[in-house]
Amino acid sequence: MSYKISRFQDPARIPELIDLFRTGLGETTEEHWMWRLFSDNSMPEKAFAVIAEDENGRIIGVSSVLPAEYHTGSGIYRCFQYGDWVVHPEHRGKGLIREFYNFIYEYFKDKQYDFIIEYPNDNSYPIFMKYGFTELPKIPSWRTSKKIFCTKRKKDAYTVDGVEYLFTKTCPFTETPPAEEGRMVRSPELLRWKYDENPTEIFTWLTMQKNGQLIGYFVFATTKGRFRTAINVYDWAYWDDSDMIFRTAVRLLLKNGNFVSIWGRYSDRIKTRLKRAGMKEADGGTRLVLKAVSEKGWPEPLYLTRIDTDY
Q1: Rounded CA gap, 115 and 113, in Å?
Q2: How many Å separate Cα 195 from the centre of its chain?
């Protein structure tokens, strides 16, 4: 059977994507796809999807493509990630993932992108290794100890030793945070698109200001279980020397749940700061594989936060 591989460009066909995802990855919504594929994320190259159609024009496979531009201490890097891979059960094992990979790689090869970043599962891992990806150490998870009860009567604003801590529902800053070596920093425009406009989950910002200047932020979502509420930090940055301010911010995050979880690969300096805030490192179990597209490759070392797994 022959398949037609092409970019997905017709929003009217989103219901077909939704039906396809029900056969593999679960329930999605039209609102989600309009945001993910057809809204402005202020990146040089917008996210898009590649589809496979059978001889009757039915969509039987899809992979989204997530391009991004990141600032680091050594300059600006451009990368892209394959995502949302799903193939209809009747068409699996016929090389469609290879077709998607070739189509997308050829598209980006001459567009001055530096590397591909991926987080494969057990099924897709052999595919990426076959195509020359390099595996880096697994990405750990950092957690505080679990409290028995959540702290009640939490507030939206705190002032501690002259530092202001503010909880908001929208991104409060307009300039790209300072970059450090190896750490990929996102623009405010991308962060607003990812968190403030995201229709699939509600995010909250905690920002720290000293003498009227922003010195750090956390973006987090709460996951409520039967007995515990987790505070999952998706992105954060902190560029002050005081460990006490950082520890205070973590304690304020804890007022929203029973424990704080921060996912990511960090430098030894940042690991020390997390430990001083009462966090312990655990195996996150997430594979990280990379492939260079240009001679520039990826920044070494490469430090990541949770946002890097899902644009």
Answers
A1: 6
A2: 10
Alpha carbon distance 306, 233 (integer Å):
7
4-139 and 140-286 share one CATH topology?
yes
Please name which of 89, 205, 213, 198 lies closest in space to residue 157, comparing C-alpha atoms: 205
Rounded mean pLDDT, 257-286: 92
DSSP 24: T
Binned at pLDDT 50, 70 and 90, residue 216 comes out as very high
- DSSP-derived secondary structure letter, 221: E
CA–CA distance, 267 with 265 (Å, rounded to integer): 7
Q: Residue 128, SS3?
A: helix
Say what the pTM is.
Answer: 0.90
Kindly give, in sequence order, each residue whose CB lies less than 8 Å from that of residue 79, ignoring residues fewer than 6 positions away: 67, 68, 70, 113, 114, 115, 116, 117, 298
Phi, psi dihedrals of residue 203, rounded to the nearest 5°: -115, 155
Q: What share of the chain is helix, strand, coil (3-state, %, to 5)?
A: 25, 35, 40
Q: Please name which of 283, 270, 236, 269 lies closest in space to residue 137, comparing C-alpha atoms.
A: 283
Q: What percent of the chain has pLDDT over 70?
A: 98
Phi, psi for 19 (deg, rounded to 5) = -65, -40
Distance CA 265, CA 233 (A): 13
Looking at domain 140-286, its CATH class is alpha beta
Cα separations in angstroms, 138 against 116, 263, 296, 303:
17, 11, 23, 12
**For residues 100 and 97, what is the distance between their CA atoms, to the nearest angstrom?**
5
pLDDT digits (tens, 9 = 90+) for 159-195: 999 999 999 999 988 888 887 777 888 889 999 999 9
Q: Which listed CATH number (3.60.20.10, 3.40.50.150, 3.40.630.30, 3.40.190.10) goes with 4-139?
A: 3.40.630.30
